[in-house]
Specification:
The protein is mostly helical and 215 residues long.
Amino acid sequence: METRSPFLDTLFLLRKEGIMTIFSDIKSISQKEEQDAAYYFESEFEKERLEFLSDKINCDRETAVWAAKVLYHSAQLHLIRENTAKDLSQLIPLFKGKREINSILSADLSLRFLPQIISVLQDVDPEDPLIKILENILQQFHYSGIGFDLDLEKIDWEEELKDKTYRKLYLERVVENKAYRLAEMPYINQQLMAEFGMYKDVFWKDLQIINTEKP
């Protein structure tokens, strides 16, 4: 993909090289840039969909662009904070779409990098109001925050993971990130043990088996 703007440069380099570009000021994002980003994320989504083993999941382009803007602006706000407090709600807008599998996986194309941004912000100033805003976004899109310290105790996991494709992807990321706190939640633990079967020690030897049966 040929990059043509700070916004697209940042997204492209981060996803391809793991490099985050910080500019001297926060650049506005044009409608054309949003359209180009939508096409880019749709193509990236198609590549990742090969792992979903489902042809019923489609890219939610609007959500993908929203998440990309959240990531881009939060990265720029790491260094550029002068006179930005009043603009945080515009630079990091709330999600107004419908939270479903398509939107969760589309947002993840960018939001998977958000925990790293939050960690950097916490190192600089733990009281930064931007941190809470970003944590709330990750709370809503916690698939992208697996392994990050989020309060997910109140989630109805059986309802959350009722879609078998999403459940598969969620469990795989829990294992990949060795997210103990999530893995020891009863429903997720039960699902993991069913997946591991007799090879539990091969996949995750020191993970506890949570007994949910009442004595």
